[in-house]
Amino acid sequence: MTQSHVQSDQMKTIKVVEGGALEWQTVSRPIPSIDQVCIRVVAAGVNRADILQRKGMYPPPKGCPDIMGLEVSGYVEAVGEGVDDWQLGQEVCALLPAGGYAEYAIAHHRSVMPVPEGVSLQEAALLPEAVLTVWANVFDIAVLHPGETLFVQGGASGIGTTAIQMAKAMGANVYVTAGSDEKCKACIELGADGAFNYKTSDFEEELKAVGGADVILDMVGGDYLPKHINALNFGGRLVHIAAQGGLKGEVNILKVMMKQLSITGSTLRGRNDIAKMHLANMAVEIVWPWVASGQVRPVVDSRFAMQEAEKAHDRMTSGEHIGKIMLTL
Amino acid sequence: MTQSHVQSDQMKTIKVVEGGALEWQTVSRPIPSIDQVCIRVVAAGVNRADILQRKGMYPPPKGCPDIMGLEVSGYVEAVGEGVDDWQLGQEVCALLPAGGYAEYAIAHHRSVMPVPEGVSLQEAALLPEAVLTVWANVFDIAVLHPGETLFVQGGASGIGTTAIQMAKAMGANVYVTAGSDEKCKACIELGADGAFNYKTSDFEEELKAVGGADVILDMVGGDYLPKHINALNFGGRLVHIAAQGGLKGEVNILKVMMKQLSITGSTLRGRNDIAKMHLANMAVEIVWPWVASGQVRPVVDSRFAMQEAEKAHDRMTSGEHIGKIMLTL
């Protein structure tokens, strides 16, 4: 291991204690193994998966620390054996399997990315999870084409705001739902061609009225599944990245056959390092230039000191946020 | 129109009469329009879709005759304007949108195929629907790879016997279900690596015991859908071509996400002429050599004179057939 300077072998991190409360505790500082990079964290993104992990419903993969946090930005602090693509002190952001809510976090060296031009080091923490999720699902799995129509459930979420901008940057039409007129307005300002307030309108009808969808990015599932099947055009692709509205949904198989639909989904965390490397490469090659040109930017809802992670989670569960919530150190 | 010789402008065909009975009636002989070929039929394949059409549940596409029959073989009798790829008198087989249960049938010239080496002109009538369906769904949509495992519901059906042979010819492992030990034996003889009698065993458990499936070709749907999701490996593809067991099925969205599954389906009849041309090209280029080498052969369950189409339908609805049922003229 190569390390920038000798320091304490301890660090502070957010731990989930009995009853689900969060505490700022002292733990051992992680040491990068082969192919790993240790990042001194300056900011971390908050994701809904963190809240599931806090509740014990989304445990980290084997071998990963029992610490929340899927994305960070900061400085390369140390590198493990075999890592020659990152220099000590370099400003980076990274996708993590876990461990972002801490002063130091370990990433696979292929999941580390340079900070794109056009954003601050802090803001870069808000890119990895959303950009790689949208790439993996909308671009890789659903193969959205320029001129096609993407429909996103939850356009004002971190994923939603990112999906709107990335899909517009590649030349697609984008329609979204959001839970308030204010959020709908924010989505339109980000480039969405239309935004439907799901509390006051029927998205299936609204979507049909604008010509239906070719690709749907969904985080709701449950009762929305039959409505999505109805709103998809011939050859349409429905991609699930969460199922906040219910794990089970009903499929009309005849409609799937007649319209040649594809119902799919994926998780980011469960992918292996090679798959994540591919996504990080696509982000750096295709999306970072969009960030540099201003076509894609992280939408910062709010910032909290990492010690106040509980407040950040309250903000997310309130559902009032637009874009991403940041933890800072 | 170019025609081989002057004849009556009438022909005999099977018509569905009041109450669903079948009658051998005289109707006008069809005249090929632009891009169409008229075939003097010597044999037609019977498909389950014919029985649905007979019941009024699967009407022919607009502009097509209200006559059953999706595949025939015979001689080119006449060609419409713009057709220069077929000669009068040539032996051919063809995929049809409708109209095969007749002395003369109209096909788009790009859905006409030469008779492959290794089969009789009659037998060639049994290839188009099954070969193109398997290509469209297992090879094109589900992208079955050599070394992967295909699972087919109904291995002894016309589609099933064809899928077994085509998948083995391209180097995949194949497991199937069938409704009797005799049918299971027939599937093994065709090359299946295993066949499960669905009346005496649980296909989900049987399939898991042999390592799960990468691709499932299903004609059942309904309650099988959750079992198929359970039996699919990571990255698995489930393709529906019918839903004889129920149009609606339940999907566990979390399992779809965790295993990155794809649930799809298609119909052959609804495809446009370009899509069918592609399938016919693949059949001629890839599958016809397999027929010539004996790797793929039409499994002939039984032959009936076309006038006795009702008996052929009884044979199909009995569920006792293995392979394809032929109507002859």
Automatic annotation (TrEMBL), chains A, B:
SUPFAM superfamilies: GroES-like, NAD(P)-binding Rossmann-fold domains. Keywords: NADP, Oxidoreductase. Gene3D superfamilies: Medium-chain alcohol dehydrogenases, catalytic domain, NAD(P)-binding Rossmann-like Domain. Pfam families: ADH_N, ADH_zinc_N. Coiled coil: none annotated. Residues 19-327 form the Enoyl reductase (ER) domain. It comes from the Bacteria. Signal peptide: none annotated. PANTHER family: OS02G0805600 PROTEIN, QUINONE OXIDOREDUCTASE PIG3-RELATED. This is NAD(P)H-quinone oxidoreductase.
